[in-house]
Amino acid sequence: MARTPLTSITPTDLLDAGETPEPAAWGFATRAIRTGHRRTAEGEHSEPLFLTSSFVFQNAAEAAARFAGEAPGNVYSRFTNPTVRAFEERLAALEGGECCVATASGMAAILAVCLGLLKSGDRILASHSLFGTTTVLFDKYLSRFGIRTSYVPLSDLEAWASAIDGRTRLLFCETPSNPLAEMVDLRALAEIAHRYGALLVVDNCLCTPALQRPLALGSDLVVHSATKYLDGQGRCLGGAVVGDRQRVGEEVYGVLRTAGPSLSPFNAWVLLKGLETLELRMLAQAQAAQALAEWLRGQPAVLRVHYPGLADHPQYHLVGTQQRTGGALVSFEVAGGRAAAWRVIDSTRLLSITANLGDVKTTITHPATTTHARLTPEQRAAAGISEGLIRIAVGLEALDDIKTDLARGLNALSCPCS
Ligand SMILES: *Cc1c(COP(=O)(O)O)cnc(C)c1O
């Protein structure tokens, strides 16, 4: 049997002569490590980084043909770049989508979906519990162009079904939500969307395809903030849209090449490396989060723990079916509101006080005054963000060290002498 070709490897390349090219689809981890790499003549083992803004042509006729779209090939990195394409192919393979386009950030991915698929008069129906900036994008900016957004409680299917109408073009949700880890049944929500000819768009940031694949559950598009778990080490911004060739490959891609929020090739290279360890990281971080949630529930100063892997979580039944585990985000409430929550946060020495998540470094955040501060008090209340709420995005440090760091502040809260 011939050695696999040096230039690129796909599942079909691994078949013996005569075997039907119905490619034994690779396992997730293999796709995460092998898909999208086209080796150059140098025979490099790691994915090459094409830091170039433009590409040269053999002659004027070839330039003309590429500009006209009559000949394949690169023109300019706002349109295509080989390193960016490798990331797109790999993420598409992981999400199980036909097509992926990468963007400069998660917000650019959401904006590109809206610009590519909506027009004035269309409506978005979204969940209350969204990433704060997504709400600002919808309410402050898209509304100026005649696109109105209404909000419903994420897990309430009846509320979605009664709020949708013939002008609703997009249903938009994050499941699980940040920071309370609420979930919605994606199969049921996709049915509601499709009954009205609308599309279901899922922000799959918190689970990543390692834990949840919304397209296989009937969703139409997936958006990502690659800044979070896809990179996984807090190094760069990035985003992506995954879906079918027409909507993503034509409509959303058209916005990117015209409006310009394309992913930098350098960031694409960093993200490619992130994807290689995605499944290992997600499983390990989720396991640590499960253990931390159970430990937090036993702490006297903690009123309530929000974690999907706890049996008292309202959508516990979706863990192990819709999403593989509870994920890596744990939130909890302490008595005493903002002062008590800030005290716990300020007593940590190891955890990073930062609004970011999806890092191997564990982070701690007070959502009401940071990630969700731009919401009105009414919007915050509707999203369930109380002043005593603390969010932990669990990383990969030794779990005992994370517990020790949190115990310092929690013990101080329950100590009457302090
Ligand atoms: C961070 C985040 C975004 C925005 O992504 P950026 O890369 O920061 O633009 C969107 N959705 C969710 C759920 C996020 O956590």
Keywords:
single chain, 418 residues, alpha/beta, Aspartate Aminotransferase, domain 2, 7-stranded mixed sheet, 5-stranded mixed sheet, 12 strands, globular, binds pyridoxal-5'-phosphate
List the uncertain runs: none
Structural class: alpha/beta
CATH class type of the largest domain:
Alpha Beta
CATH-level-4 superfamily name of the largest domain: Type I PLP-dependent aspartate aminotransferase-like (Major domain)
Please work out how many helical segments DSSP would assign: 14
Tell me the CATH architecture of the largest domain.
Answer: 3-Layer(aba) Sandwich
Spell the H/E element sequence.
HHHEHEHEHEHEHEEHHHEEHEEHEH
Total discrete domains: 2
Describe the oligomeric state of these chains in a short phrase: single chain
What is the third-level CATH name, the topology of the largest domain?
Answer: Aspartate Aminotransferase, domain 2
Mean pLDDT: 93
Structure notes:
The chain is an alpha/beta fold. The protein has 2 domains: 12-276, 3-Layer(aba) Sandwich (Aspartate Aminotransferase, domain 2); 278-414, Aspartate Aminotransferase, domain 1, CATH 3.90.1150.10. It contains 14 helices and 12 strands. It has a 7-stranded mixed beta sheet, with helices on both faces. Strands 8-9-12-11-10 form a 5-stranded mixed beta sheet. Strand 4 (168-174), helix 7 (186-195) and strand 5 form a beta-alpha-beta unit. It is globular. The N and C termini lie far apart (73 Å). The relative contact order is 0.12. The mean pLDDT is 93. Bound molecules: pyridoxal-5'-phosphate.
